[in-house]
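We treat protein structure as text, and this decision shapes the records that our systems exchange. The tokens are whole numbers drawn from a learned vocabulary of local backbone shapes. One such record is reproduced below, unchanged from the form in which we store it:
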Amino acid sequence: METKEEKVYSVLEEIGIEYKRYTHPPVATIADIEALAENIDPIHCKNLFVRNSKGDKHYLVLVESSKKANTKAIARQIGSTRLSFATDERLDKYLGLEPGAVSVLGLINDKDKEVEVLVDKDLADLQEITFHPNVNTASITISYTDFQKFLKWSGNKMQYVEIG
């Protein structure tokens, strides 16, 4: 049986996405990753898993690591009720992930396409982008073009948002 990480590499190879892989000690936050930044050049983006106040809609917010995501402002932009962080149980249920390993690549596990992706529009200016491959002991870098290709492959709804 494939591990979570091996499953990511299988999918990326299946859809023709090249990646650079970096291994590192377990990291739980962007601050932990930035401490390793000398080894990982491209921007590692924050991945925040949130839900609306009813708990019937789930969003994965991708934002440049240096920014603070204002959930009130994001909720206004997407016409949602108040957004708050989803529980670890919801993270596992919808994306098959554990805290500290939240990644857009978790969409591989969202068979029912229930999670909508909200992408910081400033990420589109990047040449490359870095994520966890569904574990927090590695990071992978892909081109922004391949990131868009992955989102299209996933079939999840996606929209750009402005994050100050």
Q: What stands out?
A: The mean pLDDT is 90. The chain has one domain: 4-159.
